[in-house]
Design brief:
With 234 residues, the chain is of the alpha/beta class. It has helices at 14-21, 77-91, 98-112, 116-130, 149-159, 177-182, 210-217, 221-228; strands spanning 2-6, 25-28, 43-48, 51-56, 137-139, 164-168, 186-192, 229-233.
Length: 234
């Protein structure tokens, strides 16, 4: 079995789903620390006539110190939902695939409320299903909360009986690959290079949220993800 890992993220990019496509199981690292400063956990890009549009989920931080991702609460979630849905209506109104995704996103925002993890998990589940991906996704066990980095990933992989781990390309810059090998785990990297696809609004922009890929290409978006994904054995 091959397992991959990712922090939960709102409307992730194509590389996230490239790893999901090429895994037998993905573990979401929801008990890892939410990074201060820039992170793609709570933000990603869509596209308008003037280029990229950043969508950021505002997080409550005042007086809360360092937080785990599963502790995050959304600041003014109703305003976020209105603004995000308005972006979709305005810039993707000509998409043949907007209506079903839009209705599901409305329900998702309502169900998630202020809970960021529910929103992130729901957006991942929504995009995985509409792309036809059936790889199971599970959260990080409570027992592994105190581990970090390579040790955390090794323990998680062994805990689910995996024989292989799928890591992002260049992950060896901050992970100790030899530790995986010593634990009997084969390491495979996924190099994701976004293949161009027809987009609204002018010249192609790569590495946007996979939601843009769906709204532009519909079910054929999974073919783009497949062609953009290259596996490299360590």
């Amino acid at each position: 079995m091959r397992v991959s890992f990712n922090q939960p993220a709102f409307i992730p990019w194509g590389g996230f789903f490239g790893r999901l496509l090429n895994s037998d199981l993905m573990i979401l690292l929801d008990k890892t620390q939410f990074a201060r400063g820039f992170t793609f956990v709570n933000r990603n890009r869509l596209k308008g006539p003037l280029g990229e549009i950043w969508v950021t989920v505002p997080i409550k931080k005042k007086g809360l110190g360092l937080q785990k991702i599963n502790q995050l609460q959304i600041h003014q979630s109703e305003i976020l939902a209105r603004r995000f849905l308005a972006i979709l209506r305005h810039y993707y109104s000509n998409s043949l695939y907007l209506k079903p995704a839009y209705n599901k996103l409305v329900s998702l925002f309502t169900e998630a409320g202020d809970d960021f993890l529910k929103l992130a998990e729901g957006s991942i589940d929504l995009l995985a299903k509409i792309f036809g991906l059936k790889t199971p996704v599970k959260f990080q066990p409570e027992a592994e909360m105190e581990l970090q980095g390579t040790d955390l990933l090794v323990n998680l992989a062994l805990g689910v009986g995996a024989r292989e781990v799928l890591l992002p390309y260049l992950a060896d810059r901050h992970l100790n690959i030899a530790t995986f090998s010593k634990a009997g785990l084969k390491v495979v990297f996924l190099k994701y290079h976004q293949n161009p696809y027809p987009q609204f609004w002018g010249n192609f922009l790569g590495n946007l949220s996979a939601l843009d890929l769906w709204l532009c290409c519909g079910p054929e978006g999974i073919r783009v993800i497949e062609k953009s994904s290259k596996l490299i054995t360590a």
